[in-house]
Design brief:
The protein has 125 residues and is mainly alpha-helical. The protein contains five helices and two strands. It is globular and about 40 Å long.
Length: 125
């Protein structure tokens, strides 16, 4: 469990730096990615994908991806709202189209779909 928590935390950080770097490069040509220390435990929680995957591995890829997307949105919403209460939320989507309370972006669903399936591979035995 601890090893998968660490792998997921590191993978999440790397993916976020890559994602924000690409987004920054498109938006303002900076091509600088960033993340926050507070994100490590949030990404680390993806270790729960392993026991879930063991139960749903017979499902088709679309059904698994949809379940992961839903789980990631739920986690992002809950942690985002909790962090916002304490003025600690490192992300703010309130100015983006398709946001929910500024803590999730529904247009990120395809990215979360792929990320969930990627994390499936990261936490496998």
């Amino acid at each position: 469990m601890g090893n998968n928590f660490m792998k997921c935390g590191m993978a999440g950080w790397c993916l976020e730096v890559l994602w924000t770097g690409i987004h920054g490069g498109v938006k303002n040509k900076k091509r600088m990615g960033n993340t926050s220390l507070i994100m490590f435990p949030i990404y680390g929680m993806a270790f729960v994908i392993r026991p879930v995957y063991e139960k749903i591995q017979h499902w088709n890829v679309v059904a698994r991806g949809f379940l992961y997307t839903t789980g990631i949105f739920a986690t992002e919403y809950i942690t985002g709202c909790a962090l916002k209460k304490h003025n600690l939320c490192p992300w703010d989507y309130s100015k983006c189209k398709f946001n929910v309370k500024g803590v999730i972006r529904l247009d990120y669903a395809p990215a979360w779909f792929v990320t969930g399936l990627l994390f499936e591979k990261i936490v496998k035995k």
